[in-house]
Protein backbone atom coordinates (compact mmCIF):
# COMPACT_ATOMS: atom_id res chain seq x y z
CA UNK A 1 0.00 0.00 0.00
CA UNK A 2 1.73 3.16 -1.15
CA UNK A 3 0.92 6.52 0.34
CA UNK A 4 2.87 9.72 0.72
CA UNK A 5 4.07 9.42 4.29
CA UNK A 6 5.04 12.24 6.62
CA UNK A 7 7.33 9.93 8.58
CA UNK A 8 9.44 8.64 5.69
CA UNK A 9 11.99 11.15 4.43
CA UNK A 10 13.34 9.11 1.54
CA UNK A 11 13.13 10.39 -2.02
CA UNK A 12 9.69 9.88 -3.57
CA UNK A 13 9.39 9.35 -7.33
CA UNK A 14 6.81 11.01 -9.55
CA UNK A 15 4.73 7.87 -10.13
CA UNK A 16 3.37 8.03 -6.57
CA UNK A 17 3.16 11.80 -6.36
CA UNK A 18 -0.35 13.05 -6.89
CA UNK A 19 -1.50 16.63 -7.26
CA UNK A 20 -1.40 17.24 -3.52
CA UNK A 21 -4.93 16.14 -2.59
CA UNK A 22 -5.09 15.50 1.15
CA UNK A 23 -6.99 12.66 2.78
CA UNK A 24 -8.44 15.29 5.11
CA UNK A 25 -10.26 16.82 2.11
CA UNK A 26 -12.25 13.65 1.32
CA UNK A 27 -14.79 13.94 4.11
CA UNK A 28 -13.66 10.67 5.70
CA UNK A 29 -14.81 9.45 9.10
CA UNK A 30 -12.68 11.06 11.80
CA UNK A 31 -11.60 7.65 13.12
CA UNK A 32 -10.42 6.54 9.67
CA UNK A 33 -8.62 9.82 9.06
CA UNK A 34 -6.93 9.42 12.42
CA UNK A 35 -5.70 5.95 11.42
CA UNK A 36 -4.24 7.34 8.20
CA UNK A 37 -2.58 10.17 10.08
CA UNK A 38 -1.10 7.82 12.68
CA UNK A 39 0.54 5.88 9.86
CA UNK A 40 1.92 9.14 8.45
CA UNK A 41 -0.31 9.12 5.37
CA UNK A 42 -1.35 12.58 4.23
CA UNK A 43 -1.62 12.84 0.44
CA UNK A 44 -3.25 10.59 -2.15
CA UNK A 45 -1.21 8.88 -4.85
CA UNK A 46 -2.32 9.24 -8.50
CA UNK A 47 -4.34 6.02 -8.59
CA UNK A 48 -6.03 6.97 -5.31
CA UNK A 49 -6.92 10.41 -6.68
CA UNK A 50 -8.46 8.80 -9.76
CA UNK A 51 -10.27 5.86 -8.13
CA UNK A 52 -11.42 6.84 -4.64
CA UNK A 53 -13.95 9.55 -5.64
CA UNK A 54 -15.69 7.16 -8.08
CA UNK A 55 -15.75 4.38 -5.48
CA UNK A 56 -17.19 6.69 -2.83
CA UNK A 57 -19.83 7.64 -5.41
CA UNK A 58 -20.70 3.92 -5.59
CA UNK A 59 -19.58 3.49 -9.21
CA UNK A 60 -18.10 0.26 -10.57
CA UNK A 61 -14.42 0.89 -11.26
CA UNK A 62 -11.68 -0.75 -13.33
CA UNK A 63 -8.33 0.70 -12.28
CA UNK A 64 -4.92 0.20 -13.85
CA UNK A 65 -1.86 1.11 -11.85
CA UNK A 66 1.66 -0.13 -11.37
CA UNK A 67 2.35 -2.34 -8.38
CA UNK A 68 3.63 -0.36 -5.43
CA UNK A 69 1.76 2.86 -6.21
CA UNK A 70 -1.20 2.67 -3.86
CA UNK A 71 -3.77 0.26 -5.35
CA UNK A 72 -4.51 -1.32 -1.97
CA UNK A 73 -5.38 1.99 -0.37
CA UNK A 74 -7.56 2.85 -3.34
CA UNK A 75 -10.12 0.24 -2.32
CA UNK A 76 -9.53 -0.22 1.42
CA UNK A 77 -10.08 3.43 2.32
CA UNK A 78 -13.50 3.65 0.59
CA UNK A 79 -14.51 0.27 2.06
CA UNK A 80 -13.68 1.40 5.60
CA UNK A 81 -15.51 4.66 4.94
CA UNK A 82 -18.67 3.00 3.62
CA UNK A 83 -19.15 -0.03 5.91
CA UNK A 84 -21.92 0.36 8.47
CA UNK A 85 -21.18 -1.48 11.74
CA UNK A 86 -24.83 -1.20 12.76
CA UNK A 87 -25.61 -3.89 10.20
CA UNK A 88 -24.78 -7.52 10.91
CA UNK A 89 -24.10 -8.82 7.39
CA UNK A 90 -20.98 -8.91 5.21
CA UNK A 91 -20.73 -5.63 3.32
CA UNK A 92 -17.42 -5.95 1.46
CA UNK A 93 -15.49 -8.83 -0.08
CA UNK A 94 -11.90 -8.55 -1.32
CA UNK A 95 -10.60 -11.43 -3.44
CA UNK A 96 -6.84 -12.00 -3.61
CA UNK A 97 -4.89 -14.71 -5.38
CA UNK A 98 -2.39 -15.72 -2.67
CA UNK A 99 -2.70 -16.21 1.05
CA UNK A 100 0.32 -13.96 1.66
CA UNK A 101 -1.34 -11.10 -0.19
CA UNK A 102 -4.61 -11.72 1.64
CA UNK A 103 -2.90 -11.64 5.04
CA UNK A 104 -0.95 -8.53 4.14
CA UNK A 105 -4.04 -6.69 2.91
CA UNK A 106 -6.05 -7.71 5.99
CA UNK A 107 -3.26 -6.39 8.19
CA UNK A 108 -3.38 -3.03 6.39
CA UNK A 109 -7.16 -2.90 6.78
CA UNK A 110 -6.93 -3.57 10.52
CA UNK A 111 -4.17 -1.00 10.93
CA UNK A 112 -6.12 1.74 9.18
CA UNK A 113 -9.26 0.90 11.17
CA UNK A 114 -7.49 0.76 14.52
CA UNK A 115 -9.60 3.66 15.83
CA UNK A 116 -12.83 2.04 14.62
CA UNK A 117 -13.37 -0.65 17.29
CA UNK A 118 -16.75 -1.67 15.90
CA UNK A 119 -15.10 -2.34 12.52
CA UNK A 120 -11.52 -3.52 13.04
CA UNK A 121 -12.58 -6.55 15.07
CA UNK A 122 -14.96 -7.59 12.29
CA UNK A 123 -12.42 -7.81 9.48
CA UNK A 124 -11.97 -11.47 8.54
CA UNK A 125 -9.15 -13.02 6.53
CA UNK A 126 -10.17 -16.38 5.02
CA UNK A 127 -7.33 -18.38 3.51
CA UNK A 128 -6.28 -21.95 2.92
CA UNK A 129 -4.11 -23.60 5.53
CA UNK A 130 -6.29 -22.35 8.38
CA UNK A 131 -8.70 -24.73 10.08
CA UNK A 132 -12.21 -24.42 8.70
CA UNK A 133 -13.36 -24.61 12.32
CA UNK A 134 -11.52 -21.34 12.97
CA UNK A 135 -13.36 -19.75 10.07
CA UNK A 136 -16.67 -21.02 11.46
CA UNK A 137 -15.84 -19.39 14.79
CA UNK A 138 -14.94 -16.07 13.18
CA UNK A 139 -18.09 -16.17 11.05
CA UNK A 140 -20.11 -16.09 14.28
CA UNK A 141 -18.59 -12.66 15.00
CA UNK A 142 -20.60 -11.20 12.09
CA UNK A 143 -17.75 -9.96 9.89
CA UNK A 144 -18.29 -6.76 7.93
CA UNK A 145 -15.31 -7.13 5.59
CA UNK A 146 -13.94 -10.43 4.29
CA UNK A 147 -10.59 -10.76 2.54
CA UNK A 148 -10.20 -14.19 0.98
CA UNK A 149 -8.47 -16.43 -1.50
CA UNK A 150 -10.81 -18.03 -4.08
CA UNK A 151 -10.47 -21.64 -2.95
CA UNK A 152 -11.24 -21.02 0.71
CA UNK A 153 -14.02 -18.60 -0.15
CA UNK A 154 -15.66 -21.21 -2.38
CA UNK A 155 -15.56 -23.68 0.52
CA UNK A 156 -17.10 -21.18 2.94
CA UNK A 157 -19.90 -20.48 0.48
CA UNK A 158 -20.51 -24.15 -0.33
CA UNK A 159 -20.69 -25.07 3.36
CA UNK A 160 -22.91 -22.05 4.04
CA UNK A 161 -20.52 -20.71 6.65
CA UNK A 162 -20.64 -17.22 5.15
CA UNK A 163 -23.50 -15.54 3.32
CA UNK A 164 -22.69 -12.87 0.72
CA UNK A 165 -26.24 -12.29 -0.50
CA UNK A 166 -26.27 -8.70 0.81
CA UNK A 167 -22.61 -7.93 0.14
CA UNK A 168 -22.53 -4.53 -1.59
CA UNK A 169 -18.82 -4.18 -2.50
CA UNK A 170 -16.69 -6.78 -4.29
CA UNK A 171 -13.03 -6.15 -5.10
CA UNK A 172 -10.78 -8.23 -7.35
CA UNK A 173 -7.18 -7.26 -6.58
CA UNK A 174 -4.58 -8.38 -9.14
CA UNK A 175 -7.61 -9.12 -11.32
CA UNK A 176 -5.54 -10.48 -14.19
CA UNK A 177 -4.29 -13.30 -11.95
CA UNK A 178 -7.72 -14.00 -10.47
CA UNK A 179 -9.15 -14.46 -13.96
CA UNK A 180 -6.57 -17.06 -14.95
CA UNK A 181 -7.63 -20.65 -15.59
CA UNK A 182 -6.66 -21.55 -12.01
CA UNK A 183 -9.32 -19.31 -10.48
CA UNK A 184 -11.91 -18.31 -13.06
CA UNK A 185 -14.58 -20.87 -12.08
CA UNK A 186 -14.31 -19.97 -8.39
CA UNK A 187 -14.46 -16.27 -9.20
CA UNK A 188 -17.62 -16.75 -11.27
CA UNK A 189 -19.22 -18.69 -8.40
CA UNK A 190 -18.19 -16.08 -5.83
CA UNK A 191 -19.64 -13.24 -7.87
CA UNK A 192 -22.86 -15.21 -8.29
CA UNK A 193 -23.04 -15.57 -4.50
CA UNK A 194 -22.79 -11.78 -4.17
CA UNK A 195 -26.22 -11.37 -5.68
CA UNK A 196 -27.22 -7.95 -4.36
CA UNK A 197 -28.65 -5.74 -7.09
CA UNK A 198 -26.77 -2.86 -5.46
CA UNK A 199 -23.43 -4.64 -5.76
CA UNK A 200 -20.49 -2.41 -6.57
CA UNK A 201 -17.65 -4.25 -8.32
CA UNK A 202 -14.06 -3.01 -8.41
CA UNK A 203 -11.21 -4.44 -10.49
CA UNK A 204 -7.58 -3.50 -9.88
CA UNK A 205 -4.78 -4.68 -12.12
CA UNK A 206 -1.45 -3.57 -13.59
CA UNK A 207 -2.29 -5.23 -16.91
CA UNK A 208 -5.53 -5.25 -18.88
CA UNK A 209 -6.05 -8.18 -21.25
CA UNK A 210 -8.88 -8.92 -23.68
CA UNK A 211 -10.20 -11.60 -21.33
CA UNK A 212 -10.33 -9.07 -18.50
CA UNK A 213 -12.24 -6.66 -20.74
CA UNK A 214 -14.77 -9.40 -21.60
CA UNK A 215 -15.18 -10.24 -17.91
CA UNK A 216 -15.78 -6.58 -17.09
CA UNK A 217 -18.42 -6.32 -19.80
CA UNK A 218 -20.19 -9.33 -18.28
CA UNK A 219 -20.05 -8.48 -14.58
CA UNK A 220 -19.70 -4.70 -14.20
CA UNK A 221 -22.35 -2.01 -14.65
CA UNK A 222 -21.17 0.96 -16.72
CA UNK A 223 -17.74 0.96 -15.02
CA UNK A 224 -15.48 3.96 -14.72
CA UNK A 225 -12.09 3.13 -16.26
CA UNK A 226 -9.15 4.86 -14.59
CA UNK A 227 -5.57 4.56 -15.74
CA UNK A 228 -2.71 5.62 -13.48
CA UNK A 229 -0.06 3.75 -15.45
CA UNK A 230 1.37 7.07 -16.69
CA UNK A 231 4.03 6.38 -19.33
CA UNK A 232 5.52 3.06 -18.28
CA UNK A 233 4.92 -0.33 -16.68
CA UNK A 234 8.18 0.19 -14.80
CA UNK A 235 8.43 1.86 -11.41
CA UNK A 236 10.44 5.03 -11.86
CA UNK A 237 12.48 4.44 -8.73
CA UNK A 238 13.99 1.14 -9.93
CA UNK A 239 17.39 1.24 -11.66
CA UNK A 240 18.02 -1.93 -13.67
CA UNK A 241 21.31 -3.77 -14.17
CA UNK A 242 22.35 -6.94 -16.00
CA UNK A 243 25.45 -9.09 -15.74
CA UNK A 244 26.34 -11.56 -18.50
CA UNK A 245 28.19 -14.59 -17.15
CA UNK A 246 30.01 -17.33 -19.03
CA UNK A 247 28.58 -20.13 -16.90
CA UNK A 248 25.85 -20.64 -14.34
CA UNK A 249 28.39 -21.67 -11.69
CA UNK A 250 29.68 -18.09 -11.48
CA UNK A 251 26.34 -16.80 -10.22
CA UNK A 252 26.94 -17.71 -6.58
CA UNK A 253 30.26 -15.89 -6.61
CA UNK A 254 28.60 -12.81 -8.10
CA UNK A 255 25.86 -12.97 -5.47
CA UNK A 256 28.49 -13.02 -2.73
CA UNK A 257 30.15 -9.95 -4.28
CA UNK A 258 26.83 -8.14 -4.35
CA UNK A 259 26.17 -8.98 -0.71
CA UNK A 260 29.62 -7.75 0.30
CA UNK A 261 29.74 -4.54 -1.71
CA UNK A 262 26.16 -3.26 -1.80
CA UNK A 263 24.51 -1.49 1.12
CA UNK A 264 21.51 -3.78 1.33
CA UNK A 265 18.62 -3.05 3.67
CA UNK A 266 16.73 -6.15 2.54
CA UNK A 267 17.08 -8.15 -0.66
CA UNK A 268 14.88 -10.67 -2.49
CA UNK A 269 16.71 -13.17 -4.71
CA UNK A 270 14.41 -14.74 -7.31
CA UNK A 271 14.90 -18.18 -8.86
CA UNK A 272 12.83 -20.18 -11.34
CA UNK A 273 12.16 -23.42 -9.46
CA UNK A 274 11.59 -24.96 -6.05
CA UNK A 275 14.71 -27.11 -6.41
CA UNK A 276 16.82 -24.09 -7.28
CA UNK A 277 15.39 -22.19 -4.31
CA UNK A 278 16.35 -24.86 -1.79
CA UNK A 279 19.76 -25.48 -3.37
CA UNK A 280 20.68 -21.79 -3.35
CA UNK A 281 19.57 -21.43 0.27
CA UNK A 282 21.79 -24.36 1.25
CA UNK A 283 24.75 -22.92 -0.67
CA UNK A 284 24.40 -19.55 1.04
CA UNK A 285 24.10 -21.16 4.47
CA UNK A 286 27.14 -23.36 3.79
CA UNK A 287 29.42 -20.62 2.50
CA UNK A 288 28.40 -17.41 4.25
CA UNK A 289 27.30 -16.23 7.68
CA UNK A 290 24.33 -14.24 6.49
CA UNK A 291 20.77 -14.16 7.85
CA UNK A 292 18.77 -15.82 5.08
CA UNK A 293 15.29 -17.27 4.51
CA UNK A 294 13.63 -19.02 1.60
CA UNK A 295 10.05 -19.58 0.45
CA UNK A 296 8.29 -21.45 -2.34
CA UNK A 297 4.93 -22.95 -3.28
CA UNK A 298 5.61 -26.45 -1.94
CA UNK A 299 5.90 -25.23 1.62
CA UNK A 300 2.92 -25.51 3.90
CA UNK A 301 0.84 -22.35 4.32
CA UNK A 302 1.99 -22.16 7.94
CA UNK A 303 5.66 -22.25 6.93
CA UNK A 304 5.20 -19.59 4.26
CA UNK A 305 3.32 -17.38 6.69
CA UNK A 306 6.04 -17.72 9.33
CA UNK A 307 8.81 -16.90 6.83
CA UNK A 308 6.91 -13.91 5.48
CA UNK A 309 6.40 -12.54 9.00
CA UNK A 310 10.04 -13.14 9.92
CA UNK A 311 11.25 -11.32 6.82
CA UNK A 312 9.02 -8.26 7.16
CA UNK A 313 10.07 -7.98 10.81
CA UNK A 314 13.73 -7.87 9.84
CA UNK A 315 14.91 -11.27 11.05
CA UNK A 316 16.78 -11.73 7.77
CA UNK A 317 18.22 -9.42 5.16
CA UNK A 318 18.04 -11.98 2.36
CA UNK A 319 15.05 -13.95 1.05
CA UNK A 320 15.30 -16.59 -1.69
CA UNK A 321 11.96 -16.88 -3.49
CA UNK A 322 10.14 -18.29 -6.50
CA UNK A 323 7.41 -16.54 -8.52
CA UNK A 324 5.07 -16.99 -5.55
CA UNK A 325 6.52 -13.81 -4.09
CA UNK A 326 6.36 -11.58 -7.17
CA UNK A 327 2.92 -10.00 -6.93
CA UNK A 328 1.43 -7.58 -4.48
CA UNK A 329 3.79 -8.29 -1.61
CA UNK A 330 4.87 -5.00 -0.04
CA UNK A 331 8.03 -4.96 2.04
CA UNK A 332 9.18 -1.38 2.11
CA UNK A 333 12.69 -2.16 3.34
CA UNK A 334 13.57 -4.12 0.17
CA UNK A 335 15.95 -1.92 -1.80
CA UNK A 336 17.67 -4.62 -3.88
CA UNK A 337 16.18 -7.38 -6.06
CA UNK A 338 18.39 -10.00 -7.71
CA UNK A 339 17.20 -12.22 -10.55
CA UNK A 340 19.54 -15.13 -9.85
CA UNK A 341 17.75 -16.88 -12.71
CA UNK A 342 16.62 -14.84 -15.71
CA UNK A 343 12.81 -14.64 -15.52
CA UNK A 344 10.80 -16.85 -17.87
CA UNK A 345 8.76 -13.94 -19.22
CA UNK A 346 8.72 -10.16 -19.44
CA UNK A 347 5.67 -10.08 -17.17
CA UNK A 348 7.53 -12.06 -14.50
CA UNK A 349 10.47 -9.69 -14.87
CA UNK A 350 8.32 -6.62 -14.29
CA UNK A 351 6.68 -8.09 -11.21
CA UNK A 352 9.98 -9.27 -9.76
CA UNK A 353 11.83 -5.98 -10.08
CA UNK A 354 8.74 -4.22 -8.74
CA UNK A 355 9.48 -5.67 -5.30
CA UNK A 356 12.07 -2.89 -4.95
CA UNK A 357 11.33 0.77 -5.50
CA UNK A 358 7.92 0.46 -3.86
CA UNK A 359 6.01 3.34 -2.28
CA UNK A 360 7.77 5.63 -4.76
CA UNK A 361 11.16 5.00 -3.18
CA UNK A 362 14.40 3.96 -4.85
CA UNK A 363 15.82 0.50 -5.48
CA UNK A 364 17.97 -1.51 -7.86
CA UNK A 365 17.29 -4.73 -9.74
CA UNK A 366 20.13 -6.94 -10.95
CA UNK A 367 19.59 -9.76 -13.45
CA UNK A 368 22.12 -12.54 -13.93
CA UNK A 369 22.30 -14.11 -17.40
CA UNK A 370 24.27 -17.28 -18.18
CA UNK A 371 23.96 -19.54 -21.21
CA UNK A 372 22.12 -19.25 -24.51
CA UNK A 373 18.65 -19.95 -23.11
CA UNK A 374 18.85 -17.19 -20.52
CA UNK A 375 20.39 -14.81 -23.04
CA UNK A 376 17.43 -15.35 -25.40
CA UNK A 377 14.98 -14.74 -22.57
CA UNK A 378 16.79 -11.59 -21.51
CA UNK A 379 16.80 -10.19 -25.04
CA UNK A 380 13.05 -10.82 -25.25
CA UNK A 381 12.53 -8.98 -21.96
CA UNK A 382 14.76 -6.10 -23.03
CA UNK A 383 12.89 -5.79 -26.33
CA UNK A 384 9.51 -5.80 -24.54
CA UNK A 385 10.31 -2.92 -22.19
CA UNK A 386 12.21 -0.74 -24.66
CA UNK A 387 10.52 2.54 -25.45
CA UNK A 388 8.99 2.87 -21.99
CA UNK A 389 10.19 5.42 -19.46
CA UNK A 390 13.03 4.15 -17.26
CA UNK A 391 13.57 1.15 -19.56
CA UNK A 392 17.37 1.35 -19.72
CA UNK A 393 19.07 -1.79 -18.39
CA UNK A 394 22.64 -0.90 -17.44
CA UNK A 395 25.66 -3.20 -17.48
CA UNK A 396 26.55 -4.07 -13.90
CA UNK A 397 29.86 -2.42 -12.91
CA UNK A 398 32.77 -4.79 -12.37
CA UNK A 399 32.92 -3.40 -8.86
CA UNK A 400 29.32 -3.34 -7.53
CA UNK A 401 30.28 -0.75 -4.92
CA UNK A 402 30.47 1.74 -7.82
CA UNK A 403 26.66 1.74 -7.97
CA UNK A 404 25.75 5.12 -6.43
CA UNK A 405 24.13 4.77 -3.02
CA UNK A 406 21.57 7.42 -3.92
CA UNK A 407 20.08 5.00 -6.48
CA UNK A 408 18.82 2.62 -3.83
CA UNK A 409 18.09 4.50 -0.63
CA UNK A 410 20.61 2.61 1.47
CA UNK A 411 20.33 4.92 4.46
CA UNK A 412 16.92 4.68 6.11
CA UNK A 413 15.96 4.67 9.74
CA UNK A 414 14.96 0.98 9.79
CA UNK A 415 18.50 -0.01 8.85
CA UNK A 416 19.57 0.67 12.42
CA UNK A 417 17.64 -2.42 13.54
CA UNK A 418 20.11 -4.82 11.92
CA UNK A 419 23.53 -4.02 10.39
CA UNK A 420 23.68 -3.69 6.62
CA UNK A 421 24.09 -7.04 4.91
CA UNK A 422 27.51 -6.02 3.61
CA UNK A 423 28.62 -5.47 7.22
CA UNK A 424 27.21 -8.80 8.40
CA UNK A 425 28.48 -11.20 5.75
CA UNK A 426 31.68 -13.08 6.47
CA UNK A 427 32.98 -16.13 4.59
CA UNK A 428 33.03 -19.12 6.93
CA UNK A 429 36.67 -19.79 6.20
CA UNK A 430 37.81 -16.28 7.18
UniProtKB/TrEMBL annotation:
What PROSITE patterns does the annotation carry?
HELICASE_ATP_BIND_1, HELICASE_CTER, Q_MOTIF
Keywords noted in UniProt: ATP-binding, Helicase, Hydrolase, Nucleotide-binding
Q: Which GO terms describe its molecular function?
A: ATP binding; hydrolase activity; nucleic acid binding; RNA helicase activity
SUPFAM superfamilies reported for this sequence: P-loop containing nucleoside triphosphate hydrolases
Concerning Gene3D superfamilies, the annotation shows: P-loop containing nucleotide triphosphate hydrolases
In what residue span(s) does the DEAD-box RNA helicase Q domain sit?
Answer: 21-49
Which InterPro entries does the UniProt entry name for this protein? DEAD/DEAH_box_helicase_dom, DEAD/DEAH_RhlB, Helicase_ATP-bd, Helicase_C-like, P-loop_NTPase, RNA_helicase_DEAD_Q_motif
Stretches assigned to the Helicase ATP-binding domain = 52-226
Helicase C-terminal domain sequence ranges: 237-401
Motif mapping: Q motif: 21-49
Q: PANTHER family this protein is in?
A: DEAD-BOX ATP-DEPENDENT RNA HELICASE 50
The entry's protein name is: Superfamily II DNA and RNA helicase/ p54/ ATP-dependent
